[in-house]
Design a protein that fits this description.
With 166 residues, the protein is mostly helical. The protein contains seven helices and four strands; from the N terminus they run H-H-E-E-H-E-E-H-H-H-H. A hairpin with a 4-residue loop joins strand 3 and strand 4.
Length: 166
């Protein structure tokens, strides 16, 4: 559950470009420049020791962010299945905070619905690697911390340990 919360935090904070929490910041763009990849996101000098970087493809404008916040603010979940997520949304200060691990689980469950069966683990193991490779083409390298890396190991852990509820 904590891995899911950390992954959910990374995704939401980066998508919403929440200051101090996003993985897409100037140092991430310096990393891209040092690695010589994603030239469209390299820094551009604008003079007097100042640099500017282009918005990534996952960046949202103010209208898109308001729609995103609106979905979370007005989400209706069954009673006692999660805390009141709408109380965690602070659209005026551009922040989503205070949600629990299980809330993150439900967010990811409804955002990325997938029924996982034990016979799907081999397929999922390959899919996780492919999805992470695709995400590497979108998100900056700093997005991929140890919590994102743990996704690679989860299919084997489920195979070895079984489903959590059992």
């Amino acid at each position: 559950m904590h891995i899911e919360k950390n992954i959910c935090d990374s995704i939401i904070m980066t998508l919403l470009d929440i200051q101090g929490e996003t993985k897409d910041h100037i140092n991430a763009h310096y990393d891209l420049q040092d690695m010589g990849i994603r030239k469209d996101l390299h820094l551009r000098d604008i003079g007097k020791d100042r640099a500017k970087f282009s918005a990534a493809c996952f960046s949202m404008n103010a209208h898109e962010k308001s729609i995103f916040y609106g979905v979370f603010k007005h989400a209706k979940l069954p009673d006692k299945s999660a805390s009141n997520i709408s109380k965690c949304v602070h659209a005026t200060i551009n922040k989503i905070s205070g949600y629990k691990s299980y809330d993150a689980h439900l967010m990811l469950l409804h955002l990325l619905p997938m029924a996982i069966q034990l016979h799907d683990m081999d397929y999922l193991k390959v899919e996780v690697v492919e999805i992470l490779c695709q995400l590497e083409m979108i998100f900056p390298p700093r997005f991929f911390d140890i919590m994102i890396h743990l996704l690679i190991h989860l299919p084997n852990e489920v195979r070895l340990g079984g489903l959590v509820q059992f």
